[in-house]
Amino acid sequence: MQKAIVKNINQTDIKRGRKKKIVWKKYIPLYLMALPALIYLFINNYLPLFGMQLAFRELDYSKGVFNGSFVGLQNFKFLFATKEAWIMTRNTVLYNLLFIIVDTIVGLGFAILFNEIRSKRASRFYQSATLIPYFISMVVVSYLGYAFLSAENGFINNTVLRIFGIEPVSWYSEAKYWPFILLFVHIWKGLGYSILAYTARLITINDEYYEAATLDGASKWQKIKCITIPMLKPAVIMMLVLSIGRMFYSDFGLFYQMPMGNGMLYSTTTTIDTYSFRALMKLGDITMSSATGVYQSVVGFILLLGANLVVRRISKENALF
Amino acid sequence: MRTASDKRWAACGHILMAVLSILALTPFLLLLIASFTEENAALRNGYSFFPKAWSLDAYKYILQQWGVIGRSYLVTIIVTVVGTLSGVVMAAMIGYTLSKRDLPGRNIILFLVTFSMLFNGGLTATYIIYTQIFQIKNTIFGLLIPNLLLNGYNIMMLRNYFEFTIPPALIEAAHIDGAGQTMIFRKIVVPLSMPMLATVSLTSALRYWNDWMNGVYYLSANSKLQSIQTILNSMNENIKFLQQNNMGTTVDASSIPSVTVRMAIAVVGIAPILCLYPFFQKWFVKGIAAGAVKE
Lengths: 321, 295
Fold this sequence. Notes:
The complex is a heterodimer.
Chain A: H1 2-51, H2 74-81, H3 83-116, H4 120-131, H5 138-149, H6 155-163, H7 178-202, H8 207-215, H9 220-244, H10 252-257, H11 266-269, H12 272-282, H13 286-314
Helix pairs in contact in A: 2-13, 3-7, 3-9, 4-7, 9-13, 12-13
Chain B: H1 4-35, H2 39-45, H3 57-64, H4 66-98, H5 106-118, H6 122-133, H7 140-144, H8 152-165, H9 168-176, H10 181-192, H11 194-210, H12 213-218, H13 228-237, H14 241-244, H15 258-289
Helix pairs in contact in B: 1-15, 3-15, 4-8, 4-11, 4-13, 5-8, 9-10, 11-15, 13-15
C-alpha cells in the first residue's frame, strides 16, 4: 500500500519534471544569454551592497577588512561631528539646485532661439561647435581651465587682467571665486547637450498651434509664452523632480578635477563625492569614506523614491518605476 | 511667410549661438596655441593666443618620451576596444532576453537590472570589493571592468529597441523555419538593430576613452598600465610625473619644457576625439534627440 503511494508520487514527480523540461528547454538559450550581464551586475552592483557593512564596523587591519567588530552607528557619529559633513552636504545640495535652475532656464532659452534659426548649415555648425565640450574628459577640461586660471602662466592673469590694469588673482587659492568658475564650466560643458535635448522636445510640438496663433495675430513672444512653454511644462517639471532625486550626487569629475585638489578651495568645492574619495584614496580612512558612501546612497535613494512618488502622482508614464 | 519679427528672433538666435560656439571653441584654441608656444615666452607672458615666440619643443619632448606616451595610447585603445565590444555584446544579449514578454522570470531579471540603476553601494564599497576580493589593483581589469563595462541604462535602451522596433512577425517566421534563439539573435535582431547598437557602442567607447577614475582608483602611480587620461591626471597631481617615469632615459629636469609640455600632452589626449568627431557626431545627435544618450 505504502509502496504503491511512493511509486505514485515518484511517477507524478517524473511526469512533472519532464513536462517542465520541455517548457524550460525553449528558454535555456535566453537565460544563458542573460547570464554574463547578470554576473557582471552581481559583481559590480550587488556585491558592493555587502561592502556597505564596513560603515558599521570598526577597522582592524589585523583581523582583515571585513572582520572588524560591529560598532553600530558610531562611525556616523564621528562623521557628523566633523564640520566637513555639513560643508559637503551643503555644497552638494546647493550646487545641484544652482545647476538645475540654470540648466533649465539657459538650456530652454537657447533651445527656443536655436529653433528659430532656419539655415540648415548654420544650425549644424552651431550644434557641432557647442557639443564639442561634451565629449571631452574632465581631466582635459581641467587643463583648459589651468591655461586660463593659472596664477603664473594663466591667460586671465597675464592678458585679460593686465589689459584692465587689475592685480593678478591667485585663482587656485581663493575659494570665493569657485562657485562662479564651477558654474561656468558646468554650463560650458553641458549646454550644447541641453540645447539639443530641449530642441528634440520643441520639434515635437505640432506646427498647427503656431500657425493658428499667427492667423490670430499673436506675436512671437506670445506664442512662446502661450504655446511653447505650456507644452514643455510637463516634461520640464518631470525633469526637475527627477533631478531632486539625484540631489545627493555630484559630478565628481567637475569638483575633483577643476580645483586640482587645492586644499584652500575645499570650503566651496568639496562635495559628498570628493570628500568620500579623499577620505579613501588620500587619507586611507576606509571607515569615514564608507560612512560617507552609505550616507549618500541611503539619503539619495530616499530622495529618489520620494521624487518618483511625486512623478507617479503627476503622470504615471514618466515615473522611473 | 516670414515676418520681420521672425527674422529678428532668428537674428537673435544666430548671434547668441555664434557667441556660444566661439566660447565653446576658444579654450581648445588656447590649448593648441599654448602647446606650440616657446617655453620662455610662455613663462614670461603666460599662455596667450598670440605668443611672442613659437616652438615645437613640447612635441619634440613628447616624441622623446614616446615610450611612456605611446604605451599609454596603446593601453587606452585596447581598453576602449575590448571594453566596448564585450560590454555591448553583453548588454545586447541580456536586452534580447528581456525583450521576450513570455519569458518566465523576466520580471525578476528586469528588477535586478532596474535596481542596479537606482541604488548602489557607493564607490568606496565598490573599491573595497574589487581590491580585497577580486584583487584587480594594477591589472588591466582595473581599467576595464569597474563601472564602465555595462550599465542598466544601455540594457534598457537595447531592450526597448528589440521589443518595439523589430517586427515580431519576423522573429516568429524564423522560429517556424527552425532557427534557434541564438541564430535569430545573430542573424535577425543584431543586423536590424545597428542604429541603436552604434549609438550605445559610441557612448560606451567615449566613456572608456575619457575615463580617468578607474586609473585613479585601481592603478598605483608607477603602473605601466596608465592610460592617456590617467597620465593627464597624474600630471595634474604631480608636475614632475613624466620625469620620474621616463623609463631610464636620463633627461635633465630643467631642460623639460614643462609649462608647454602639459598642454601638448592634453592636445595628444584629445586629438583622436576631435579628429573622429565629424564622423561620430551624427550618431550622437540622433541618440540624444531620441533620448538614448544619457547626460
